[in-house]
Amino acid sequence: FPAALAAGFDTVEMLFPYEANLADLRAALDATGQSMALINTPRTDWNGAAMGLAAIDGAQELFRRDLDRAVTAAGTLGATFIHVMAGNSSGAKAHDTFLENLDRAARNYPDQQFSIEPLSPINTPGYFLNDFDQAAGILDDLGAANVGFQFDAFHGAMIHGDVLDLWDHHGHRAVHVQIAGPPDRAEPQHSDLPLEEFLQRLDRDGYDGVVS
User: Pairing state of beta strands 147-152 and 35-40?
Assistant: First the structure.
């Protein structure tokens, strides 16, 4: 956190805070005066391909446990968003399970903001949520005010190619934006990502959230 502050960032995100002491993390945030933008729901298997549980049929009870853990962490850290990780799955049953679990999260924790993020199948093979149109359709079906689109320009470039066109179609849904340089997830300014134009587009369209 101090290194991020020294680089000029007053906001941070921390994908998986679960191995750390939450009180220590809270104290570190208080010491720097930074805010926490986002955390993920727990990753269930650090050594394998499992990337969450929300779209895994039969794992609903485990998802509830992980969701409670994430909400507790978000409350302690003041995290604005919890990214609900779908996990590795496919098919209609996975779709229905994902909707069911997102609906449960939205209804049980109405004061918490959640996000969903499409991940590139090149980088995360087997991940259920792997297309921006797919994510938009799920959000439309869900219709929950506290569940929004996490727009990662890196994954957008890897999945669809044209990030600016993708933003034109889905930018109005974005509640949190992330950037990195494709194809190696490197610094965005050292890649083919049209970084300056993309950031200008965010300003032009009135996006007022965090860019991580």
Answer: unpaired
